[in-house]
Design a protein that fits this description.
Blueprint (H helix, E strand, L loop, with lengths): L1 E6 L4 E7 L5 E9 L7 E4 L4 E2 L7 H15 L7 E6 L9 E2 L2 H10 L7 H14 L4 E6 L9 H4 L5 H4 L10 H15 L1 H4 L2 E7 L3 E7 L2 E5 L20 H10 L4 H10 L2 H6 L5 H7 L4 H25 L4 E5 H6 L1 H8 L11 H5 L13 E4 L4 H13 L2
Parallel strand pairs: 1-6, 6-8, 9-12, 12-13
Antiparallel strand pairs: 1-2, 2-3, 3-4, 4-5, 7-8, 9-10, 10-11
């Protein structure tokens, strides 16, 4: 069996798979809203709520590892795979060793919102299962194929030499989506000009050509690109300077605002959840503004990536928003007929796999992503290599 761990800034997703010729899911679940008063521990199959008295990430990890110890037979567990958001120059999944852990700890300043908790989970599971090998699967790995021009930041070269460049994220999701697209549309179609839109509380887009990432909206950190639930997205550097100056913000305070108080939450001042904002937008101009900005920015990135790719053949929507909210997809695609993007209203409203019109030059798909399964597949290949 292979256990997968996917840690977010306020959640931990996990899944267990039987290995063999084909992976078979045994169970999956998540701990959500870590750090809030209404934290939940849910087992997806059969949908049970697990008692969890966690109040912060450390107690959430303890809750999860304790439950796993009671429900996973260590004798049957072959490996544990972790989603690691920031992999710097790592191009492929790798065995977690003492040397890699030291390297990941050096990376913490580059991703203070993810790496500390990912490291804590690795160490907690090492303590719980000391004889089980663990692997790191990097979100940045998929984007290592981007050309140099897409990686460069226009800052003094000495910072580039320190590793400050555009890395891109959501790579495990994009790798999974490209595999699924090959099954759905055919391998030839998947080798064309593809734009992937992973739209969830964290949101990004990726331009793929000949199966390889050539550009992506997130850059040096997952806070870049489109405005997200509570992350700002791209900012004029002067905005950062004036915010820090007028409120005398420390670097940590500024980072917290950009990652936890901005985006849709910052604009609406009520919520970063798109479904909630849609319900409020008729009577609340701030909620409407947040939704409008989100759709507008995603639309712009689709246009930008069509330019970078010399056109577009396929658009894929994924993530909690991309997979489940037809109205958002409609608003994003409105006005993109000049690119050949035309939605079929009935298909779109049903969240069908293919939601474009038959005459549309661009095929538009809705494909549920599965980062945990992608991790399991990568780890399964590693242990059978």
């Amino acid at each position: 069996m292979v256990l997968t761990i996917n840690a977010g800034s306020s959640s931990i997703k996990f899944a267990l798979y039987n290995t063999g010729k084909h992976l078979a899911k045994v169970f999956s679940g998540q701990i959500d809203r870590i750090g809030s008063a209404d934290i939940t521990f849910t087992l997806n199959e059969p949908g049970d709520q697990i008692p969890c008295k966690a109040t912060d990430y450390d107690s959430g990890i303890a809750c999860l590892t304790g439950w796993l110890a009671q429900n996973v037979n260590a004798a049957e567990l072959k490996a544990i795979g972790h989603r690691v958001v920031q992999g710097m120059q790592q191009t492929a999944p790798c065995l977690i060793t003492t040397e890699l852990m030291k390297e990941l700890k050096r990376f913490i300043p580059y991703d203070p919102d993810h790496l500390p908790t990912e490291i804590k989970l690795i160490e907690a599971l090492q303590a719980r299962y000391p004889d089980i090998i663990q692997f790191a699967c990097f979100d940045t790995g998929f984007h290592q194929t981007m050309p140099e021009v897409a990686k460069l930041l226009p800052i003094p070269r000495r910072f580039t030499q320190q590793g400050i460049c555009r890395y891109g994220f959501h790579g495990l999701s994009y790798q999974y989506l490209m595999g699924e697209l090959g099954h759905i549309a055919g391998k030839k179609a998947a080798k064309g000009r593809v734009i992937l839109a992973h739209l969830g509380s964290g949101a990004s887009l990726c331009a793929v050509y000949k199966g390889k990432s050539i550009d992506t909206s997130m850059g040096f950190t997952p806070a870049g690109g489109v405005s997200m639930s509570c992350r700002s997205g791209d900012l004029d550097p002067g905005v950062a300077w004036i915010m820090m100056k007028t409120e005398k913000l420390s670097p940590n305070q500024f980072n917290h605002i950009i990652n936890h108080e901005s985006g849709l939450l910052g604009i609406s001042e009520t919520s970063g959840d798109v479904s909630s904002l849609l319900k409020q937008e008729t009577g609340d101009s701030r909620s409407a503004a947040a939704i409008n900005l989100f759709c507008y920015q995603v639309k712009k990135w689709i246009g930008a990536f069509a330019a970078a790719s010399g056109g577009v053949d396929i658009v894929v929507f994924a993530g909690g928003i991309g997979e489940n909210i037809p109205l958002i997809r409609t608003r994003i695609c409105e006005g993109l007929g000049f690119l050949g993007i035309e939605l079929n209203k009935k298909r779109n409203n049903k969240n069908a796999c293919l939601i474009s019109k038959d005459k549309s030059r661009v095929a538009v798909h809705v494909i549920p992503t599965d980062e945990e399964l992608m991790i399991a597949e990568l780890v399964n290949k590693m242990i059978h290599a």
